[in-house]
Each structure stands twice: as C-alpha cells, then as structure tokens.
Structures
1.
Amino acid sequence: MIDWDWDYAIRILPALLGGLRVTVLATLLGSVLAFALGLVFAVVRRNRVPVLNQLVWGFVELWRSTPLLVQAYLIFFVLPDVGVTLSPLTAGVLALGLHYACYTSEVYRAGIDAVPQGQWEAATALSLPTSRVWLGVVLPQAIPRVLPALGNNVISMFKEVPLLLAITVVEVVATARQITAGSFRPVEPFTMAGILFLLISYPAAILIRRLERRVGVL
Amino acid sequence: MSSEPMIVFAGVEKRFGDNVVLSDLDFTVAPAEHVTLIGPSGSGKTTILRLLMTLEKVNAGTISVGGRYLSHMEKGGTLVPADEKYSREVRKRIGMVFQQFNLFPNMTVRGNLIEAPTRVLGLSKEEANSRAVELLDLVGLGEKIDEHPSRLSGGQQQRVAIARALAMRPDVLLLDEVTSALDPELVAGVLSLLRDIGETTDITILCVTHEMGFAQDFSHRVMMFDGGKVIEDAAPDQMFSAPEHPRTKEFLAAVLNRS
Amino acid sequence: MFDNIGLIVSRLLSGVPATVSAAVGGIAVTILLSFAAGLALLARSRWVRGVARTYVEFFRGTSEVVQLFWIFFVLPALVGFQIVPLGAGILVLGLNHGAYGAEIVRGAVGSVPRQQYEGCVALSMSPAQRMFRVLLPQAVVEMLPSFNNLFIQLLKSTALLSLVTVQEVAFQGQVLVPNLGVGEKLTIYLVELVIYLVLAVLITFTMRRIEGWASARVGRAPTPRARRPVLPGKPS
C-alpha cells in the first residue's frame, strides 16, 4: 500500500530544506517582532496610559481571537492599495509578529504580575525614575521566569508558518506542493515536510520543558 | 536644631473603600526626633509610614516634610494633589526600610546600594561606590559587597536594606516593623545597628515596631494608635510605666506580658 | 462602494454554515479524543500510555497545515479514496486539537487533590467508579477555561480549511477579493474578523455557562477571571 521511493525522496530533500530555511527565517523574524511588540503592549497596559491602554486592550482581544490567515490576507492584499507594497515574506512576518505579540503580551503580563509588590515599593522608596524601575528592577525579574512560555510561543509560531503559503511565501509546505504539482507523487514531499517539522519542534519542546524545570513554571 | 517641625500631618484622613483607617489625624515630628508608633494591627500605624513614603495618597488633609508639602503642591495659589514628578522630588529626602527587606534580587549588594545614588542623586560611580563601602562597613557587612542578596541571612539582608536607605542620605527614615520577619537571634543585631544610627546621625526617625524594649531606649516619643487616631503621645518612660489611656494600658499589658 | 456592502456581507455569511459545521464537528472529535487520550495517558498499562503519548507528541509536534494537506492529498494516494474536504478538515481539526486537549485532561485529572483519590480507595470504589463519579467531575471544572481557549483556537483553524476548498468564511472572502476596490477589500477582511469574533464570543459564552453548571455540581464557585490560564494559544 505504501510505496515509498527512496531515490525520489533523497532527490527532493534539498529543495525541501531550502523551503525549511524560509520557514525558520520567518519564525525567527516573526518572534523578534512578537517579543518586542508584546513587551510594548504589556508595559502600556500595566502603566494604564489613558487612551492607549484601551486601544491596546481592544486590539489584543480582537487580534488573538481571529484567524492568523485572515490577518495575513489583510496585510498582504490591502496594504498595496494604500501604497505600501510588501514582499510576501515581509507581509508574513508582520502578520506573525502582530498576531503573536498578542500572546506574548499576556505572557509578559503574567511575569510582571509575579514580581512581588515589595519590589515596586522599594523602588518607589528609593525614588527611582520609572525607566529604572522597569529596566533595572521589574523586567530583569519578570522576563527570566517567562522564557519557557515565550519559547513555547516560538514553537507554535513555527508550526503556523505554513499558512503563509496562501500569500505566496515559498516555505517548506509550499515547496512540497510545488514538487507534487510537478511529479504527481504527493506521498514523499508532504510526509517529509511533516517529519521535518517534527524533527525541529519535538526536541525544541523537550528543551523548553527542561528550561521550565530550571526556571520554575509560572 | 531648627524649631520648624520636620513632619506635619494636618487633618489627614485615609480610607480604603469603606474602611476609614485614619481620621482627622494631626501630629508633628521635630527634626532629629525618634518617634515610635505602637498599637494593634489595623490601627493605622503602617498606613502613616506608607503615606509618608507616597505609597498611598491621602483622602483629605495634608502632609508636609521639611517645610514642603508632600501630599499636595501649590499651583496658582491653591493646593492641588501632588503629581508624580513633584512627589518624587520631595520623596528623595525620605527613606524607608521594609519588613520584607525588598532588596533587588537581580543585583548584588553593591548594585543595590549604588542604584539610587547614581540614578537619582546623580552621584558618579566612584562616589556612590565609596559611599556604599563606607555604609557596609558601618553595618558590618563590608566583605559581602559583591554577594547576591539570596546568599545572605535575613538579618544581613535587613542590614543591607538599612544601608541602602542611608545611602540616599535621607532627612527622614521610616522603619516598618523591620525586625518582625527575622529569626529571634538576628533581631538584636539589627536593633543595635539602629541604635547606633540613632545616636550618630541627625536623621528624623519614625518607627513602627513590636519591640517594646527597643522602643523604650531608642525613642524620644511614643505614640499609641488605635482606630486611626493617636490616643496617647508621651515620652517612653512615661508611656511604658504609667500609661494614661485605658486602651494603652490594655495594649501594653497584653504585649509586655507576652515578651 | 457602499452599495456593495450588503452583497459582501451576505456572501461572507454564506460561508458561516461551513465554518460552524467544521467547528462543531471539530470540537466533537476533539472532546472525544481529549478524554480518550487524556485518560489513556494516566493508564496503568505502559503500552496504552505509550500509544497515547505517541499520538499526542506527533500531532502537537507537526504543523496543522501539513496534517491537513497530508489527509487531503496523500491519504487518497495511499488508500485510493478521497475524503470529502469538510470531512478531512473535521478529522484534522479533531486529531490536532485532541492532542492538546489530552494534555488538558491529563493535567486536570492529575490536579485533583490526592486525598480525593485516597478517599475513594478507602471506600473500596472500583477504578471506573473512582474516575467517573469523583475525579472527573472535579477535574472537568478545572479543564473548562483551558478548553475554552482550545476551542477558540480550533475556530481560528477552521479558516485553514479554505486552503483545501472548503467554502467557509475565509474562502468566500478570497473569492470576492480580486474584484474589489480598496475600501471594499479592507471591509471584507474586517467583516470576516468580526464574524470570527462573534463566533468566538459565542463559544466563550457557552463555556462559561457550562462552567457555572459544572461548578455548581461539585459545590464550587467558577474560577474567577483573574485565575484563568494566562497563556492563550495552544497550551503545550
């Protein structure tokens, strides 16, 4: 029933690995954006900046309850009409970053809330400026604790990257589809794409579980 | 010593929801005076310290420190509640030591001591460092300067916390039950340090404590609080040997009998 | 531009039945698999635990899009028949989210205090009675907030089915998009987002009601909002 052609499999491997590179690149860039933007969201919400606070809250609630695919379509198809033309990969990274920023902001909030109230009070007692309270006292205590959760978000993002093929990003699953279209043999390309995902995300998940044990899960 | 009071509470009211913790509170503290606040939990003593440290805001009345309003600022001839910027300025002259020490775990002892002097007072790294070394020697922990707080005992951490507060050269020092979280054998070390500080500096000190022996030697004045009001205010010798108010008698009897 | 709005909205709404079918079907399969695999993860037999663990790690470790394409493109090549797109979609949604759900079930049952388990043993209850009469009812209350998040994840994933020709909301949107002007494109996507948001709110509303009912059955108040899981997205 399962006829697997090893020669074929080996021949298509380089192309698939090329696609995987794009997948990994999108994940890394998207994660950087999500980490940075999520932190901004979390700090804004924590500081209760008047109008900005509600806007951020509204955006985060909307954005994380709706499909990433639709958001990617929105960014890729609507922006060119207002003069901003982005490459598929850029649009994809932007979509990933915005979407996952909504998750990371919650992660950061949990970490910040876990910093004991006494730390804030001691910082006030010493009259430290707000920037130092955040950069010198609170964030250095909040962030290490939530690194495992941030890591899990990266893995989740990695597994969602393939949907960017809908906006023509040529990552690993798109590559598999191209190969199949040419050869009419879907078994090897898609199976290998699946295995490639497993080979990366499973060890990564194990590493993160180890990290959780060391850092103490929130 | 000037005759201008260092701390003035005038008609202060503080509520938490429906719970009125302080009502129409008036008292003053003279410069270099050591005042101990005693009384049952919930009587408002810690709230007074927290108001002075601007960790809470007053609902009514005013607080002044060193002749300047703390809780309010003057704007166009009237008093309005102080904003963060103004509070931070006046607050620089006040230091606080907490029951839970609250040292910053992500910094070494040295880091804890130089953080505020460099970032707030604008001292250079060298000046802040030499001040830190001086203060740590004073509290007897010179060799721990590059340790992390987690490696110190409770008593040691509290002494570092005291040094950290003193590094800001405050005019007013607030001590909030600073020995309550310590193992009994470590308490004496911290108390004797505080006595030294009281004797060798002109800092005005407001102290909330259950250590009555310490309160007796250390203070110039003891104020007994109950239900958000000062019910008795006297020199320690008088307060402890001949309290006047029935509630004070009751409280002291219970506390002194236990210890 | 705005006269088209009515057409746009009605076209998008025509995709809602497919979205809802996929979501409901997916949720049903998810619940079945979550409990089956979740309880299997707690079984005595190492073999049963191993099978469940393999299922969970496999479906959590691979991408949902890959799973979808595999069932849709590869399976027919192997077994000779083609599953209906919607069916393939429901299958993948259930298999994928069931793996995450299994961990939720395992975690919640594991978090019931040991004393409850010991009480059952003291009363000589059989393992089945223990599980179904005592442990599960208490565990279910713990699970519901996490399942709420999981089901919303599943709802979002139904959009992926548009990639295998299921004519749900996102698909309908893409059909319309090539023919529209600037403002209309933005409108389509915004309306799509609102549709998904409304469905997500419906899910949350339903789950909260169930939580209220389940909590009452074990004599507890529902988890206050502040204690809900703060890590949205797939719990891993």
2.
Amino acid sequence: MTALEQRRVPPLGGFNLTFLAVEIRRLFRNRRTLIITLVVPVVLTLLFRTGRRGAALQATQGVDYQALITIGLAVYGAMLAATSGGAIVSVERALGWSRQLRLTPLRPPAYIAIKLLVAMTLGLISVVAVFVVSAIEGVQLSISVWVLSGVLAWVGALVFAAFGLFMGYLLPTENVMQFIAPVLGVLAFVGGLFVPLNLLPSTIQDIAPYTPVYGVVQIARLPVAGNGFDPTWLLNVVLWTAAFATGAMLLFRRDTRRT
Amino acid sequence: MISHASAPGGTTLDAAIHLTGVRKSFGPVRAVDGIDLQIREGEIAALLGPNGAGKTTTIDMILGLSRPDQGTVSVFGMSPTAAVSRGLIAAVLQTGGLLKDLTVGETLRLTATLFADTRPVEEVMRRAGIEDIAGRLVGRCSGGQQQRLRFALALLPDPTLMVLDEPTAGMDVEGRRDFWAAIRRDAEDGRTVLFATHYLEEADAYADRIVLMRHGQIVADGPATEVKNLSAGRSVRASLSGADQAALERLPGVRSVEIRGDRVFVQTTDSDAVARHLLTATAAHDLEIVAHSLEDVFLTLTSDEEDKSR
C-alpha cells in the first residue's frame, strides 16, 4: 500500500477528457435522450416544411420568415438537447451514481462542468441536425447567417443547460424529461420559435419578453432580422441563466448535505 | 493520538478513524447521539447493531457524505473529504451507485480516471473476482456481481481504509461467503477495515473488534470474543406458580431471575442446570429454552445501563 505521504490529489478537481468522452459516449447509448434531442426537432423541421411555406410567406409579406422559422427550430433543438443533457443528473441521483462519485476525488464543480459540456455538446449536435435537414429541404441562407445564427442559438442554450440542471436536482426521477418536454414546447411557442411573434395574439406578444426563450431566439435571429439589437434581450438571457443556475446550486447544496 | 499526514517520522500510531462527541439529527430523530470512536490502523472492526441504530449515519459522516451537527470526524488526521481525494479511504455502500448503461470494465476505467493514482483495472477485477464479466452491462449483473464491482471500485485507489456498509445485504449464502473471502484475502495485506452489519455471526466471523451500537450510541466496544460472550447465555422460561426466586438465583450460571405472575424467566449460561432443577425439583411445566439473539444482548446491555443510572 502506498504510504500516506505519497498520496496525491488529482488536478482540476478530477476533471479529465477521458471522463468527458465516456459521458458523451453514454449519450449515444441512451435512446430516449437521442429521440428527444435529435429526432423531435428534425421531425418538426420536416413537418413545418420550412422551405415551401416560408417562401410563400416571404412573397406576401416581404419578411424572411423562412430564415426566422429555421433559426427558431435550431433554438428549439438546442434547448431540448441542453435541457435533457442537464437533466441527466436526475437519473444519476436516482441511481445513486452521484453518491458513488462523491467517494472519488471528483469535486462538485468539476462534475457540474462535465454535465454542462455534455449538455452543450448535445445542443450543438441538435443545431447542426436541424440546419442540415433545413438545407436539404430547400432553405437558402448565406454561409455567414448559418454559422452566426447557429453559434448564437447554441451558446444561448446555456440557459437551458442550467434549466436542465435545476430540474434535475429538483425532481429525483429517471424520466424527468417527460415532465419537462411539454413545458419546453409551451415556452418555445410563447417565445415565437415556431410562429414569429408578430403573427401571434397580442396577449402572447405582451408576455413573451419575460419568458426564458425570448432573449435567446431574438439574439439568434439578429443576423437575418435586421431590426437592430435590443439590450433587454441580453438581459433576458443573463437573468434567466442566473436564476436557473442559482436554483440548481441551492438544490445541489441541499442534495450534498443530505439533511 | 492523531498525527498529521505530513508529520515527519510517522512513529506515532495513527488513528485511521477518530470520532469525538459526534451527534447527528434528522429533524426530531437523533440518529447518532454522541459517540467517541477510534479505529486504529490495521484493525478489522465491525459496527454491529439493529436497523436504525445509527450505523449508516456514522459511516456517512466518516466518508464525508454528511457532516455531524456536533463533534469532529477525522480520517488519518485529515477531513474525510481530503482523505477521499487522496484515495486513502474507500467504501462499498449498501445499494445503488452504479450506472446500468456502462459495462463492468467501463465503470472501473471511468472511475479510475478520477484518481491521481490507481491500481490497474485488471488487477482489481481479479481481486474482486469479476474479471470474467468485464464486458457485461452493469444492469445485467446479479446483486452479488454488482456488489463485487463496488468492491473492485473501492480497491482502485488502493485505500488504506476500507469501509463497508452492510455489504452482504440481499446476497445469498454463497455470494456472502465469496464476498467475505475476497475481503479477508485483501485484509491480510494490512488494510484497515470497518464494516457495518446487523448479523452477529458476520461480525464474529470477520472482525477482530466489535463496536455495538443502539439508538445512536455505542453500548459496547471490545474484542469480538468478549462482545460475543455477552450473547453466550440462554433464556429458560417456564410456567410455575409460587416460584422460589432465591433458590433459582443460587443455581450455577444464573445471571438473573424474573417472575411475572405464573411465568419464570431465567437468564443463564448453564441452561441445562436450570432446566433440570425446574423439571425435577419444582412443579414447573411448559418449559422453553431460547438462545440469546443479538436483540437480547442489546436489551441486556441497555437495561444494565438503566439500572446503573438509577
């Protein structure tokens, strides 16, 4: 046995790339996660037939609805993926795996960082999938719009990675996404992801700016909307991220204290 | 005597575990109600007690999974979390704690990446006796195989102290024997072992020292043989009206005599003598001889305490 003095503590609180790689590999083994994060947004994209319908709307009203809906669907994919990526902690808590991990040098911040990275990886895959299907369906955007909007939709999904963690610590169940997915659907609709806000009833238009999807999608649509940047969008993203992250942190503390 | 890990020389005998005045409550329930405990390096100690005695709560605090409301816990002179980070202390917990969608080998390799230094995965699989199921998904493993995987996980950092919480709960006889054989082989290398159990036989067979817990307190602590002697006696019960208490108390080996109406209860280490006396010298009938269970030991110990405090 190694002498007491020679015992070392791993760097970065136990964070390492092998661990991250195994975590990502686990995602692809989880059929339910893949269906929610990839199949649902892709099927929605196909159902919307963004190409043809968008083109018709564009002809009548002179706004690039095709691009707005495509980006909205990308944000939807990213938020579904990031949320379910974060919500995986509920499964790991239910199984007692997070307790097992506490018997290793892995520090809680490193664990959360890995979960966020996994959630964001899933979000990136979802954004790319939605864009590829849209392009095949005939949506035509300039390269810079694809890339810029894609990156903005993806980075904005951080709000939902935090939301997923929050829900994951709130509900200790193995199928937390079954509760969350409908909520996300409503938020997506109210935020104007599927139908641009100006085509929705005025009540929804009034509520929308206070909901967590609004800021992300407005920012992601900047490259095509052309109506300028509104600082309240960023405020929306920052405040909701802070709210969910704080909630997740408080619940995490309660969880580890086990009182 | 606690010495720090960084202390030069290391000539003092380190306490592997040192608990002082530890209390922990869950709402109104006092799960651990003031315990002091030292486990020395190289000891194999059993934490013995019925369900709800506070064993798991005590172990959780030793592992840093929860914090005491009062008192201090140190492991090799440092905080439990620091000891876990250095791989000095490892544990096999009761249930759960495994991902069903990983294989046995993947679970071990994944966990190994979290430590600064570990034993080779192949080696710990061999020592835990699971090298033949490395490719099996954890969800397809039997309870005994999962428990040996937990043991293999605990072996990874080559811990100086191994803690096991009811490690054989839910195992069949054979699984139980295999599991303890693996632990026993392992402890011969000088590893300190603390395990919780509610089986007296298990504590007696595998521990050098038994710490008896009840209602969150330590009620007895000593070499396994001594603690086991506490339960060596038997209880003789019979129906007898007008029993002569003094005569019964004079019989060899009798510890106590209690008369409740027509029933006589005799605690003794020589049940034969009491039975012979009752059946030949008195009109006793419906005689029963009952071996002491662990629960009786607890009752005896705690009633003694109450007598003393009166």
